[in-house]
């Protein structure tokens, strides 16, 4: 019997094929029972795996399991305590979420506060399947209200340098490697589980920077920030940040999280580890942008940093308290290296310097500043413009790090400025960050200072072929010495030694010796050149300033100021006398002048000593030889007083008026030697206030001079023509004496001496002038000699200074009669007779003065303050001809 054939399909004996069950579509075979069991098994696995993941996750969360494992894992990885102050929860879902309340991460020992990191809540979405392979994969980690403190301690050590705890020796790990794109904790297990982190999101966060050495603190708002892992395992961070009122956008790419944890632990300060963490980040906002590309290890950065801003207003928000001038198109590029930044380049398109009062506009740019590193010399080049004057400049500066530390000096410094007909150079050494110890040579050459000033919109005098040089020395307490100061031009030559101290109240002291100064040869400054502007007429071929018809339009005429009422017109202007500005400067100066030419007059041996401290000025002496004698002044002012005060005294015993008046720009026509002295004091803030409170005296004395008749007519033409209708109109007239002395008290100047005597007439006067009210109260007795007979017509001068009134004295008739009788008595050569004495006394009573007061010698003595001086020569004997005089003489003899 043959052996049966073995089954071929799992044990079914051979035989005819089975028929499909009824109801199946034709051509479809029934599913074998064994295959149906496979589907059931697969479905069970699919359902069991989540349950198993949840079970595994529940085991991890059971009791305080996860809390202890997370706290121990972070503590082991960083070397610092990490705690969860709140409960640990689980939200069941397809991707379950673990909730950690109140995480706290300890700060470095000696920090400003206990925690380096805190948060309100941390939510972690955990994948289930990786749990079966002992991997804790956190797909999304959300941190709510985090606060991160980054600080350096008193020794400069950062709190982000961690020291992980040493792990015990373990057997080789046979677990599968993390999937590509996953980050890990650096291989440290959490009870046999490797932790992988894929995405982190921060909400309503804040980062704080604190420097314990300087006390500086900065805050960075993090309203929304996301960190996730790219497909190649690198991290990318995107979000919004806020800093000092600026809203910024952040986009950064870096290495893996495990690489970051490894890199931040570092090895030694200043030495990168073998695992540098790459980073490529950009931070941008309105008008400002920063880019960083490089690597990070420990607290050491390496890479390239670029920062740009469209103007300094953006940077002013980032760096408060830094006084930056208005600038445009700013850019900073540098390489970050362990030893500090290298390949530094700073550029600016235009920098506008602050404008002072009515000074010109000054701008710099473009500017380029470069340095290999902070320990190397700095090179700077650029352009500048003062008004319409373009300049080029170049500077080689000391190393910033060395200057800041103050060690390793002195350091060389070079600066050169060139322009049209201008060359300036400054070269020498610096000893430290301040001016003390500096030693530099300064030289300046300008072909035509006046033309340069016109282009620079500066009122500069017309010095030609100007050469100036000095040796600058930095001294203690901020002083800068200008030694061997020299200035030479076609019109001037001077030397000296000065010291300057910049500051809120600048100071200057030293000496200046002027060998020669020709003011007559120095033309005045030129007005700024008109800017060339293209208007519509120029664009259409019309001339500048012409209308469509080719005619030059007439400039609008400014309306005339309204006329003041006659009674309100003032002669003394209400101009400010800014003595309070004396407090803005401290000075001790001595000036000597060998030869000064001004007004076609040579002045020699000038001397001035000036002291200014605390708003108090004393200039004593102010003296110079010229115009026939020496003129000496003394000026004292109290700018800090309320109101300010001014005292002026002067003495010029012998001044040649013919030379002095034209030199001062005053009308000529007067000759003779004038003896002048004054001692005046006043208080006030304006010229009118000072005149109203004037005190002191003024004295003028002149003997044997001459005056142009035209000048007499201009000063007192009406009075002269009244007394001398037939007097000459041309030529000059001899002045036997001029005596004037005014004594002022509280703004009222009273005449103590007032006499003008010529060959044909004289004017004797008395009275006062109220400078505060600007009112006149004078009595004048003009006397004219006609044919040997004296005729006197008393005159009263009163009214306002702006509109004086001239009228005859009501007692004029009696005075005139007495004058005639006195003159006749004198012509009898009997001035000491009874009649003459009586008439002289009567005249003195009428005029308020005795005849002795009308004498030139006596009046000159009073004008000089009691000093003796030149007196006029005796008058020539009069030619006594017959006529009216003989008739009167005959009548008197009866």
From TrEMBL:
Ranges that cross the membrane: 38-61
Supply the InterPro entries for this chain: AsmA (IPR007844), AsmA-related (IPR052894)
Q: Where is the composition biased (Pro residues)?
A: 13-30
BP-aspect Gene Ontology terms? regulation of protein targeting to membrane
Q: Name one GO cellular component term.
A: plasma membrane
Protein's UniProt keywords contain Transmembrane: yes
Q: Which domain of life is it from?
A: Bacteria
Instruction: Provide the residue span(s) of the region labelled Disordered.
Output: 1-35, 165-189, 523-568, 865-886
AsmA domain location: 40-216, 572-752
- What PANTHER family does the annotation carry? DUF748 DOMAIN-CONTAINING PROTEIN (PTHR30441), PROTEIN ASMA (PTHR30441:SF4)
Name listed for the protein in its UniProt record? Putative assembly protein
Q: Give the species.
A: Roseomonas mucosa
